[in-house]
Automatic annotation (TrEMBL), chain A:
The keyword Ribonucleoprotein applies. This is Ribosomal protein L14. Pfam families: Ribosomal_L14. Belongs to the universal ribosomal protein uL14 family. It comes from Stephania cephalantha. CDD domains: Ribosomal_uL14. One of its GO terms (cellular component) is mitochondrial large ribosomal subunit.
UniProtKB/TrEMBL annotation, chain B:
This is TRASH domain-containing protein. The keyword Nucleus applies. GO terms for cellular component: nucleolus. Residues 116-129 have a biased composition (Basic and acidic residues). Residues 6-44 form the TRASH domain. One of its GO terms (biological process) is ribosomal large subunit biogenesis. Keywords: Nucleus, Ribosome biogenesis. Belongs to the eukaryotic ribosomal protein eL24 family. PANTHER family: 60S RIBOSOMAL PROTEIN L24, RIBOSOME BIOGENESIS PROTEIN RLP24-RELATED. Residues 104-168 are annotated as: Disordered. The keyword Nucleus applies. One of its GO terms (molecular function) is structural constituent of ribosome. It comes from Stephania cephalantha.
């Protein structure tokens, strides 16, 4: 019982949330600076955010300090599915996209939810290794 | 629509129920209710928790090997709809269920077979070992009482003056 109480309450992806970048764009860690949902608390699974690149590999497509757009492909906070059940992931992860919503990298690592199809991110789904 | 099994208690998860957890290696853990999800978060092993199916199977509480379990299987190819097949399936479900229940009852009966005689044997042994603690009711009456006899003591009556209210 104690471990449950000690466990962290997972919340929205909001300003200053650090997210792992799971593509080969060159960025490693992105900090959220704006969630693109009008009049809503923060971003959840499948939402688009604006972030700032905090860590990047040398000679990548993006470099440290860049302001980038990205789609949240994994979120630790649970999200309702269309059938009423819920889904949650291990970590908060992002795939970098341009303003038109096309991915910057050419590969996507780890599982992604099928809800991205609803948000018109079919390209990310085709690149993904696993669809959950 | 697919009916999944709960990762923790192996019960059926119906559509719209429960929660799914996807680990980073893309393994999906499905839970039928928050009880199972919480137990998973506490890192409990379902084989060691007594109310799960895994425990009952492991400890021989439930029937494990039976031909009726063969029907329930994950099929990745959808069956083409055929009215006759569907009708026969619906009929078969009832029959198979009946057979399964009967077999389970038999399993339970066999499992509980030696229980009554064992219990009686244990009770007889206890009586034999601790018969010296039992006494006849007549002997108890003749014995002197364990408690001290009651003594009546006269208490001094409070005087009328003390009851009057105090003056300012």
């Amino acid at each position: 019982m104690f471990t449950v109480l000690l466990q962290q309450q997972r919340t929205f992806i909001q300003m200053r949330t650090n997210l792992k970048v799971v593509d080969n764009s060159g960025a490693k860690r992105v900090m959220c600076i704006q969630a693109l949902r009008k009049r809503k608390t923060g971003a959840r699974l499948g939402d688009t955010i604006i972030g700032s690149v905090k860590e990047a590999q040398p000679r990548g497509k993006v470099k440290k300090g860049d302001v980038v757009y990205g789609v949240v492909v994994r979120a630790a906070m649970s999200r309702g599915r269309c059938d009423g059940s819920e889904i949650k992931f291990d970590d908060n992860a992002i795939v970098l996209v341009n303003k038109q919503g096309e991915p910057i990298g050419t590969r996507v690592f780890g599982p992604v939810p099928h809800e991205l199809r609803k948000k018109n991110h079919v390209k990310i789904l085709t690149l993904a290794e696993h669809i959950a | 629509m697919r009916l999944e099994k709960c990762w923790f208690c192996s019960s059926t998860v119906y559509p719209g129920h429960g929660i799914q957890f996807v680990r980073n290696d893309a393994k999906i853990f499905r839970f039928c209710r928050s009880k199972c999800h919480k137990n998973f978060k506490m890192k409990r092993n379902p084989r060691k928790v007594q109310w799960t199916k895994a425990y009952r199977r492991l400890h021989g509480k439930d029937m494990t090997q039976d031909s009726t379990f063969e029907f329930e299987r994950k099929r990745n190819r959808p069956e083409r709809y055929n009215r006759i097949v569907a009708e026969n399936t619906l009929k078969a479900i009832k029959t198979i269920d009946k057979v399964r229940v009967e077999r389970e009852a038999r399993h339970h009966k066999r499992r509980m077979m030696g229980k009554k005689s064992k219990e009686q044997k244990e009770a007889a042994k206890e009586v034999e070992q601790s018969i010296h603690m039992v006494r006849a009711p007549a002997a108890l009456q003749q014995e002197s009482p364990r408690t001290l006899p009651k003594i009546k003591v006269k208490v001094a009556q409070p005087t009328a003056e003390e009851n009057q209210p105090m003056e300012e």
